[in-house]
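Section 3.1: Structural characterization of target chains.
Under the original work plan, the team committed to producing a structural model for every single-chain target entering the pipeline before any wet-lab resources were allocated. The record below documents one such target. The sequence was received from the expression subgroup and is listed exactly as submitted; it comprises 401 residues.
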Amino acid sequence: MKVRVGVIFGGKSVEHEVSIISAIQAMNKMDGEKYEVFPIYITKDGKWYTGEILKDIEIYQDMNLLKKYGKQVYLIEKDGRFVLQGRGFLKKEIQEVDIIFPITHGTNVEDGVLQGYLQTVGVPYVGSNVYASVVGQDKIYMKAIFKEAGLPITNYVWFYDSDYKQDQKEVLKKVSGLKYPLIVKPATTGSSIGISTAQNEEELIKAIDEAIFYDQKVIVEEMIENLKEVNISILGNYENQQVSAIEEVFAKSDMLTYEDKYIGSSKVKGKLGIKSPVKGSKGMASLNRKIPAKLTKKLEEQVKEYGVKAFKVLGSSGVARVDLLIDDESKKVYINEINSIPGSLAFYLWDPAGKDYTSLLDEMITIGIRDYKKRESKTHSFKSNILEGFAKNGLKGMKRK
């Protein structure tokens, strides 16, 4: 009997379209002999749909078609089974699933919100748990934990949007302790959305205004001028880890942008005027990169060591991508960030390491099942009821006010 896998993607996130690309790539590569795959698409307004038609990327160019041919559902536990149940008067069971595979990016879906819902329902799922997902999405939490673990990070400061709006001068004074050039980021977005660089205070103010558009928290970091940016993917959980090939990535400017990562030469524009991914897009796999990265043996080992340590210290699971920065002059390595559900699931880093995409997905599902069994083996509640008899004995002495 095949394992029934529900692949969740989309959601209320600025990385919505990126998630669609990643999910459709993955669904097309899952082993049809072992898995029965069901798409579960979350619209930008939070509605859930399923249906075979959702495996075709063209359907997302016309939401009316999606609503016409897809079935609106929600996920519930029913008599020990996990069911996609239709909405409406009859509440018909649409599909039973054995495990959920979130292939989502960004806030509201990658940041622990979705994982918390799945864990509340009780369904097995692939990837990092709530805690690792929260920290993996918030660059400020992440850096604090990396620093505590002794991992090298660049100098930074952070602040709330309200702090900046109330006293811009005080925040700029705080940032003045850093050395230009600087990079300004919303704390919880991914895919380089809302990120800008600044060579001076005038550019810094513009960059902060851009970051605030996307997030309540902003982080400002020193940039490495002699920069070599490398990424490595880690597969496993807190017990066992495997490392992929290492890539060096190249940007058109002084940093990787959303366009560098996902759009490339596409000329199709969406409602906001930005170019949108189209059929045939390879997502992160299309980025200008060198695999394997040209590193000394010492640097290669350091990148692997830091990648594994970052993965373990956050308690990550499934596949993550760890982004690192190398000062090409001093040869010092810094941890930049971890991506709990990386674009394209970083499959392009595993093929050079001898693991094709189908095998990678298979191992991720196996790890997800193993993680679920471990969670279920732990005590999360007590059978005894301390409130038993409370109404009889405890309420007697209570006076109504």
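Confidence is low (pLDDT under 50) at residues 261-281.
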